[in-house]
């Protein structure tokens, strides 16, 4: 029901205007006044306390680190951890309710279904409070991961940008149901995982593939000619079948006649020139080649020395398509914690 401002007193109107002035003028906005959560009232003026339940203790090896398993509402758990472990957590993984409208979660002890007109506001209010508490637990180098599906994907992305303005935020696509869940227009085969981590650093790490990727260091294809990356045309120095160093980037007016040029000291300068004598470029720039020398080796092919790259460490890609992510296969087969 819309308010009848004609019935407002002057003081009421001024108070309403002041209230509206406090609202954001840009960004993600939701109705907070009508979606107050009961935990806000319950926690006001109170100090959260953890109580040990000894009969539920999980016996572990006393020589190994002790972990804490907290059973309870996540709002209360995050609140108490803000007192005990602020700025000390390396990784936080969140798997929140997806707000599908199928009564998959409760808000103030009532299920939120598709007919709830404040469904999205309640979800945003629910998430913002918990994400703020989680943010305060992370170390300066900490990483937060949050999964979601298409129902709140866009809203979560905007919320994370608002709460973590100085962080890198990357959305990963995870193929979890190749058969698809039929919608009105599209069959949904994937979900999302947001990774939030500090900018200007390596925090996610790399993955090792079962088989090394072995390929020529000389680039190929339509974007491999020398002119497209001048700092990628330089000699790689080989002696006695081993790479011993890297020459300077060649001047533009220097055009070696062959890919292999033998030097007086017995070493060989290898240039990225193909069998048709077309000047190509190396995959690595001069600086990158030196940093990644451990990945490089050379071998003789048909009387000519070529440089090969062996790579086994890879940065994670933004689309994950592997059977281990298939929920209908691995989700139901995971053993339950008892």
Q: For the CA atoms, what is the radius of gyration?
A: 29 Å
Largest sheet, described in full?
Answer: 5 strands, mixed
**What is the CATH architecture annotation of the largest domain?**
3-Layer(aba) Sandwich
Fold-level CATH name of the largest domain: Rossmann fold
Shape category:
elongated
Domain count: 2
Question: Order of SSEs, N→C?
Answer: HHHEEEHEHEEEEEEEEEHEEEH
Number of strands: 16
Uncertain stretches of 5 or more adjacent residues: 334-338
Helical amount among residues, as a percent range? 10-25%
Mean pLDDT: 87
Strand content range: 25-35%
Would you state the CATH class of the largest domain?
Answer: Alpha Beta
Helical/strand content category = alpha+beta
Distance between the termini: 49 Å
Strand order of the largest sheet: 1-4-8-5-16
Q: How many helices in DSSP terms?
A: 7
Architecture overview:
The structure is a single chain. The chain is of the alpha+beta class. The protein is 21% helix and 28% strand. The chain folds into two domains: 32-205 and 321-331, Rossmann fold, CATH 3.40.50; 211-315, no CATH class. The strands form five sheets. A five-stranded mixed β-sheet has the order 1-4-8-5-16. Helix 3 (74-84) packs parallel to helix 4 (119-137) and helix 4 packs across helix 5 (153-163). The longest helix has 19 residues, at 119-137. Residues 334-338 have low confidence and may be disordered.
Topology:
Blueprint: H1 10-21, H2 38-43, H3 74-84, E1 89-94, E2 102-107, E3 110-113, H4 119-137, E4 138-148, H5 153-163, E5 167-175, E6 181-182, E7 187-188, E8 190-198, E9 206-216, E10 236-239, E11 242-246, E12 260-262, E13 268-270, H6 286-291, E14 296-301, E15 304-315, E16 319-320, H7 327-331
Parallel strand pairs: 1-4, 5-16
Antiparallel strand pairs: 2-3, 4-8, 5-8, 6-7, 9-15, 10-11, 10-13, 12-13, 14-15
Helix pairs in contact: 3-4, 4-5
């Amino acid at each position: 029901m819309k308010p009848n401002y004609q019935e407002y007193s002057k003081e009421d109107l001024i108070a309403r205007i002041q209230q509206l002035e406090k609202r954001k003028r840009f960004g993600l906005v939701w109705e907070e006044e009508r979606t107050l959560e009961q935990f806000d009232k319950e926690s006001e003026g109170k100090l959260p306390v953890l109580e040990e339940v000894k009969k539920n203790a999980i016996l572990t090896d006393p020589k190994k680190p002790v972990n804490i398993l907290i059973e309870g509402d996540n709002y209360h758990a995050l609140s108490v951890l803000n007192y005990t472990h602020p700025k000390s957590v390396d990784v936080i993984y969140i798997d929140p309710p997806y707000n599908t409208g199928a009564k998959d979660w409760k808000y103030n002890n009532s299920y939120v279904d598709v007919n709830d007109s404040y469904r999205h506001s309640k979800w945003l209010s629910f998430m913002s409070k918990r994400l703020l508490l989680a943010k305060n637990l992370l170390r300066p180098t900490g990483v937060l991961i949050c999964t979601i599906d298409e129902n709140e994907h866009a809203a979560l992305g905007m919320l994370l940008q608002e709460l973590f303005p100085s962080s890198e935020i990357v959305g990963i696509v995870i193929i979890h149901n190749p058969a698809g869940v039929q919608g009105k227009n599209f069959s949904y085969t994937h979900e999302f995982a947001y990774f939030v981590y500090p900018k200007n650093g390596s925090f996610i790490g790399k993955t090792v593939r079962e088989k090394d990727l072995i390929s020529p260091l000389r680039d190929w294809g339509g974007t491999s000619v020398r002119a497209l990356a001048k700092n990628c045309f330089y000699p790689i120095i080989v002696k006695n079948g081993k790479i011993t160093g890297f020459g300077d980037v060649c001047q533009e007016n220097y055009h070696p006649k062959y890919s292999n040029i033998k030097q007086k000291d017995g070493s060989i300068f290898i240039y990225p020139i193909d069998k048709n004598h077309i000047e190509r470029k190396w995959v690595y720039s001069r600086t990158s080649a030196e940093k990644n020398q451990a990945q490089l080796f050379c071998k003789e092919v048909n009387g000519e020395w070529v440089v090969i790259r062996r790579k086994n460490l890879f940065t994670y890609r933004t689309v994950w398509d592997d059977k281990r992510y298939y929920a209908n296969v691995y989700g139901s087969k995971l053993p339950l914690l008892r």
